[in-house]
Design brief:
Blueprint: E1 3-9, H1 15-28, E2 33-37, H2 44-47, E3 57-60, E4 63-67, H3 70-77, H4 79-91, H5 96-106, H6 114-118, H7 124-139, E5 144-148, H8 152-172, H9 175-190, H10 198-218, E6 224-230, H11 234-249, E7 254-262, H12 273-289, E8 295-299, H13 308-319, E9 335-338, E10 343-348, E11 357-361, E12 365-370, E13 373-378, E14 387-394, E15 397-403, E16 411-412
Parallel strand pairs: 1-5, 1-6, 2-4, 2-5, 6-7, 7-8
Antiparallel strand pairs: 3-4, 9-10, 10-15, 11-12, 11-16, 12-13, 14-15
Helix pairs in contact: 1-13, 3-7, 4-5, 4-10, 7-8, 8-10
């Protein structure tokens, strides 16, 4: 069975180099490996010192590299949706140039800037990048997919997008198809706006099914794991803690921490004396905070990590002696259990602050908010008649109690 390894971290910490080193190591083991980038500021081509195209290209024995172009993926696989958007923009009074751009993107002319110019659909780049990952996984052409993601915030948006979009689409189906059949003639006559035709709706429905499978794939702990790259600096360490908490909130399996750019202790220069002390303190903090997760230390090299030879230094110094491709289910999944008074939900939220957690219950969902992130947890049918009666946060776990009568509905922990 193929495996997916996702590398993320704050911008500038060296995610691409660490991901590339894993890809080279995997290829050394004889595994068919694909190293792919979802960051719109791709740099895999820079690392391997060659220009990459819109499809996977071989860079080493057993190793292909691929910089995803979501616009190309969208135009290639979801043409009906782009055709509909072109008609929608044109019918709603937008410029014919914009509509023409969308239509070009849907057709054979994929060299333009269609999706970027469109700019009206947040999350489309993330969506089609993920769908492409799933497609390559299911192709069976590779044993390991190693994904070099954008900086942490964008990665979190990328990974949570299928769940968020599925939540909205569940509210629309099957009502959506009925609404289109009834309202399409009215919308065209009264609002000069075309609703999606049958082909577009079928494409949307296919997308919904892909999203459901995509969620299963990304949260399958036997298949997918997330690794966080960090450096021993205060701001980066704090963001690493938040990222770990947010990823666990959404049930992703984080099973590795990589501390990059560690200064050599024998540097012998007074200028670096204080830096060495700071790094030792932050490295100790990282190891203490992530005691249950494998932590790998990568030295700060005396050269730019560009080219196969430079990347192999990480392989030889850090990866060759460790089983870095063994995926581990480190954190617990959220779980519902029956209690004497009703039901209980446990959500694993390491590194979270109790004061930052808010709860709210709607008719069908429990909404958990912490910091800038919010998650809608769908409630099982049996809990639709229950309300939140209490919650507590202890040992990195949010424990929520549901009862069938009385109690509190929403609020802080």
């Amino acid at each position: 069975m193929s495996k997916i390894y996702i590398f993320t971290g704050k911008g500038g910490v060296g995610k691409s180099s660490v991901a590339a080193a894993h890809a080279v190591r995997s290829a050394q083991e004889g595994k068919r490996t694909l190293l792919m980038s979802t960051d719109m500021a791709h740099n895999l081509g820079d690392i391997f010192e060659r220009k990459l195209g819109r499809e996977p290209e071989n860079v080493l024995p057993n190793l292909d590299a691929y910089e995803i172009d979501p616009e190309y993926v969208m135009s290639k696989d979801f043409a009906f949706i782009m055709e509909y958007l072109g008609g929608l923009l044109s019918g709603a009074g937008q410029s014919s140039a914009m509509a023409a751009t969308v239509r070009r993107t849907a057709g054979a002319e994929t060299g333009g800037s269609g999706l970027q110019d469109l700019g009206m659909i947040p999350g489309m780049e993330e969506l089609f990048s993920l769908l492409k990952i799933a497609e390559l996984y299911r192709s069976g052409n590779y044993d390991r997919l190693i994904v070099d993601c954008a900086p942490t915030g964008e990665t979190l948006s990328l990974l949570k997008f299928p769940e968020l979009l599925s939540w909205y689409m569940e509210k629309l189906f099957p009502v959506g198809k009925v609404g289109v059949r009834v309202l399409a003639p009215v919308s065209k006559a009264v609002f000069r706006m075309e609703l999606p035709d049958k082909n577009a709706m079928n494409d949307i429905e296919r997308m919904y099914l892909k999203l459901a499978r995509l969620q299963e794939l990304l949260k399958d702990r036997d298949t997918t794991c997330v690794r966080i790259v960090t450096t021993p600096e205060k701001m980066v360490v704090e963001e690493t803690k938040r990222s770990y908490m947010y990823l666990n909130l959404y049930n992703f399996n984080v099973d590795g921490i990589y501390i990059n750019r560690i200064l050599p202790q024998e540097i012998g220069n007074d200028f670096f004396k204080h830096w060495l002390e700071l790094q030792r303190g932050y490295i100790g903090q990282i190891k203490e905070c992530f005691a249950d997760i494998p932590v790998y230390e990568i030295p700060w090299y005396d050269e730019e990590l560009k080219g196969e030879r430079a990347i192999r230094r990480i392989v030889d110094d850090v990866l060759v002696h460790a089983d870095v491709f063994e995926s581990r289910a480190v954190a617990e999944r959220e779980r519902f259990t029956e209690t004497e008074n009703g039901y209980q939900l446990v959500v694993f939220m390491p590194c979270a602050n109790k004061e930052d957690i808010d709860l709210h219950q709607s008719a069908t969902d429990l909404i958990i908010k912490t910091g800038n992130f919010k998650r809608n947890v769908p409630l099982p049918n049996v809990l639709r008649s229950y309300v939140v009666s209490g919650a507590r946060f202890e040992d990195g776990k949010l424990v929520i109690q549901f009862t069938s009568q009385g109690g509190r509905n929403g609020g802080s922990v």
